[in-house]
Amino acid sequence: MLKAEHLTYIYGAGTPFERRALDDISFSVQAGEIAGLIGHTGSGKSTLAQHLNALLKPLSGRVLLDGTDIWDKKDARNARFQVGLVFQYPEYQLFEETVYKDIAFGVKNKGVDEADGKRRQPTESELDISVYSAMDFVHLPRELADKSPFELSGGQKRRAAIAGVIAMMPKVLILDEPTAGLDPQGRREILGHIKAYRDATGASVVLISHSMDEVARLADSITVLSEGKTAMSGTPRAVFGRADELEALHLSVPAFTKVFRLLREMGVDIDDGCYTAEAAEAELLRVKSAVSRGAGEETC
Amino acid sequence: MSGAEAKTPLIRFENVSYSYGDGPDAAPALDGVNLEIHAGEFIAVLGHNGCGKSTLAKLCNAVLTPSQGTVTVGGLSTADENSLLEIRRTVGMVFQNPDNQIVAAVVEEDVAFALENLGVKPEEIRERVDRALEAVNMSEYKLHAPHRLSGGQKQRISIAGILAMRPACIVLDEPTAMLDPRGRREVMETVHALNRETGMTVILITHHMNEAQAADRVLVMNRGKILLDDTPRRVFAEYDLLEKHALSVPQTVQLTHYAGLAPALDVRECAQTLYKWLMGEQPC
Q1: Which one of A259, A274, A275, A291 makes the best mutation probe of the B interface by having the most chain B beta carbons within 10 Å?
Q2: CB proximity list for A290: less than 8 A, separation 6 or greater
Q3: Structure confidence at residue B24 (pLDDT)
Q4: Beta bridge pairs of residue B43
Q5: Is the predicted pLDDT of residue B283 greater than 50, yes or no?
Q6: Region A114-121: what's the mean pLDDT?
Q7: How near does any CA of chain B get to the CA of A176, in Å?
């Protein structure tokens, strides 16, 4: 679906502040996949995201969307509609008079491609469908459509901003720290909406975060960046199995994993690849019954 | 703190309610809260967005004054305008977004900002700024530009700006919400060291359950009222009540709960408790 090959990018090249933000990074996401992109501040996550939807042009390497280089045929504009990017704290970018107009902005810009290759403005009813279905995806009540976005609560603003990108129906949805600053309930809700969008449309999702816990629950694959390089990639299980390396990269490891690792060190035969509550509970109870059975056989 | 009960509280809430807006249907953000905070305590305040925890924080240093009831700081009512300066010197506040709190172009000037406003003598400003930057471990950055610092470093500069005023109490309203794990750890270590080494009272408003684990006392708020007020161990033992209000508990507490055990507050304790449970009671 979307593939980045050997990307390199340098900020402030030739100045004293020169910094290699991306250093030969390759990354891909399949159709319908949720890919987690993790790394601490300054690891290159956001720079990579901006390459994926053609906001930054790679110094070397290329980005392929459905097999076509997004910088070929001067088609970067198209890539920006196919690959929707939700920035960090996107609520700061709300600007229109009403929630409806704000969400409709991108859809209008994108336009509708006709069969003859021309582009026209969406009709009112097409616009209604795009805007209201996007509001439905993020559970924003339709009666808020005519309100000023600035009257919404913090969580509602965040959802309105995400709806503005979803309304364009991107094939790849990239979200940069979509839950930053929200409370646990707000975090769960936003992640649920993102999953619902993927499930309903079959789109790919790239979820950028420094919270391992959060990404683990949702992602099919995880890529860990460090200093502009790919430090690890694989299934969540495989990545969490390398807890020591994650901690060395200043990433937080779930407490479940830490406790189970300590138990392993104490000699308990427990699987320390657990990173969700359900898996941890099941594993703990499995070990308990295995130990009880073992002990029973020996002493009885 | 032992024996703290006998002393006069540093901050006292007596039947305090607060409503934003004054329509008759404006739901109170804080609803009949009684609370005593003693010098030297480290208190974590937990709850959902909208539960009233930030309102509670802002009432502590007269950013807001109660719609009903009284808040006193060191015996002075926050509703008395003549006491405002004294109250704000006693209780300092640090907010969520580090970028909204930094005013100067050089770190040490930012830390000195409040002192200059308070009319502190230049040589004393120098001394207090240096001490405050030492306390947050940022001395080597004193001549740097704040906008080039990381989020965690900026937040520590904000804390230093408050420390320079030498308050008895520091209120932090979700100071780590916008930080990455490293920044979060830096800020939490700084705050704990201040409490431990200087006896400064800390009121930490947070969503992060693991930040509450290390507090002396945890307040859980719900719909403007205090739902629980106890040690972290006893608060997290109320697993079902917390679950009912959709408040997550720390993962170590989840694990001990699955095993039907009392809550464990850190990873090592949790592993040891589970080890005993797994190896303990044999069925025959």
Answers
A1: A259
A2: A269
A3: 62
A4: B203, B217
A5: no
A6: 85
A7: 13
Helix/strand/coil percentages in chain B, nearest 5:
45, 20, 35
List the alpha helices (DSSP H) in chain B. Answer: 53-60, 84-90, 107-118, 122-135, 151-163, 181-198, 209-212, 232-237, 239-244, 251-258, 267-279
Verify whether the Cβ–Cβ distance B49 to A181 is below 8 Å. no
Domains (range + CATH), chain A = 2-241 (3.40.50.300), 254-300 (no CATH)
Q: Taking CB atoms and an 8 Å limit, are A181 and B177 in contact across chains?
A: yes
Whole-number mean pLDDT of chain A?
89
Q: Which residues in chain B have Cβ-Cβ distances shorter than 8 Å to A251?
A: 181
pLDDT at residue B7 above 90? no
Helices (H) and strands (E) in chain A, counts: 11, 12
Q: What are phi and psi of A197, to 5 degrees?
A: -65, -45
Instruction: Pull the structure tokens for residue A66.
Output: 């459905």
Model confidence over B28-63: pLDDT tens digits? 899 999 999 999 999 999 988 788 998 999 999 999
Report which DSSP code applies to B9: P
% of chain B exceeding 90 in pLDDT: 61
Distances (CA, A) of A294 to A30, A287, A298, B218: 45, 10, 6, 41
Q: Please report, for residues B95, B116, B134, B136, B168, the alpha-carbon distance to residue B164 in angstroms, rounded to integers and kept in the order given.
A: 16, 11, 11, 11, 11
